[in-house]
Amino acid sequence: MTLIFKRIADYEQLGIGLFIHWGLYSQLEVGEWTELIHQRKKEKYEHLRNSFTASQFHPRQVVQCAKSLGAKYIVLTAKHHEGFFLYDTKGLSSFDALHSPAKRDLIREFVNACNEENIKPFIYIATYDWHSKLYEKDFNKYLQYLKKSVEVLCKYYGKISGFWFDGNWNKKQANWHLDELYGMIRHYQPDAIIINNTGLKNRGKISNPEIDAVTYERGCPQKVNHNNQEKYISGEMSLTLNNHWGIATNDLDYKSPREIIESIAHARQIGANILINIGLTGNGEIPELCKNYLKLIGKWVKMTKNILYYGKATDIKATSPKDFALKMNDSFYLFVFNLRIRGNENVVLGGEKVSSRTFLNFHKRVEKVSWLDNNEELMFHQNLKENSLTVAATGFDYGTDWIVRVAKVI
């Protein structure tokens, strides 16, 4: 029998998360891997600590930005691969925000703001570390250093909803002593979700029985194998707005809102959460472009009501590519892709004709089908013998294009 833990069920109902990359690298504005990829001298690079002010980092603004997206949780990089901590390590390291001009425990402020505003705080910790000499010279001592740095968060920062680790893929054959690390987390934060990013080559793989969700970084899986252990496992996709996770001001290749919205819809179709990433500026400010992107995506999320959080996957199959159905309570919700806008004989926009969409394995007797965005009732035909439902999907009203449209079936 597969165990379904409450913390995992609750996590799946969060649906959408905001991922935030911020560190010393943000001051250079050329991506989070700049120290390694640009072969910067370690000593010179780490002097960036002396100009790290965090003067524009306001946790409540971050929380409000997440809410504008419709995100229910935030994952913030407390330590990326550069090894710089955004919190007080209690003497474990001087390479932290308390020993910078900021002189602030930024993670404490973040966790407090999240908990006060009903957003779940998740902490990102890089396990692959360029700063600590122990990583290469004495790996077992490094693991103790890593464990102690996480223990500080577990013991002194109140309720933390999840830990998001990243970097074990750098030493694939090493013994990371995960039972010790995860056991410590379970002791202090028993309800915290544990995630360890598997990297690009091992998407969806489970590295330890304590893992609560598997990752699909930049991936778009067709399914999540939720029941491949005795414990039910969730899944999480992630994408960033352009091609970098840390801020990169010369990367102009931003994803279209269509790609982002369709990715969110697909994640929920397969029962996975999704993280949408932004990079803060060097002083901790949210770039205006990112704010506007998140607000724009958030308009669609709001239009879909609570379906993205509480809707469950079904075995209903659509005959049109991409279309799918979720179920919430006693109603079904049809996600319909590739509709066009309705014009007239003078302005033809492609949505003037009704698009027939058929869904199979539909057993419920239907009384009404209507769009969520404008409550327009739709014509439909149901074949109860063949368990099929065909809906006359109308195009968007002129002046409107939701990209993915949702119809409620009761």
Automatic annotation (TrEMBL):
Q: Which GO terms describe its biological process?
A: fucose metabolic process; glycoside catabolic process
Enzyme class name:
hydrolase
Per the UniProt record, which EC number(s) apply here? 3.2.1.51
Give a Gene Ontology cellular component term annotated to this protein: lysosome
Pfam families xrefs? Alpha_L_fucos
| GO MF terms, alphabetically ordered | alpha-L-fucosidase activity
- Domain Glycoside hydrolase family 29 N-terminal intervals: 11-303
What keywords is this UniProt entry annotated with?
Glycosidase, Hydrolase, Signal
SMART domains xrefs:
Alpha_L_fucos (SM00812)
Q: Which domain of life is it from?
A: Bacteria
Q: Which family does it belong to?
A: Belongs to the glycosyl hydrolase 29 family.
PANTHER family in alphabetical order: ALPHA-L-FUCOSIDASE (PTHR10030), ALPHA-L-FUCOSIDASE-RELATED (PTHR10030:SF37)
The function of this protein is:
Alpha-L-fucosidase is responsible for hydrolyzing the alpha-1,6-linked fucose joined to the reducing-end N-acetylglucosamine of the carbohydrate moieties of glycoproteins.
Protein name from the UniProt record: alpha-L-fucosidase
Species source reads: Liquorilactobacillus vini DSM 20605
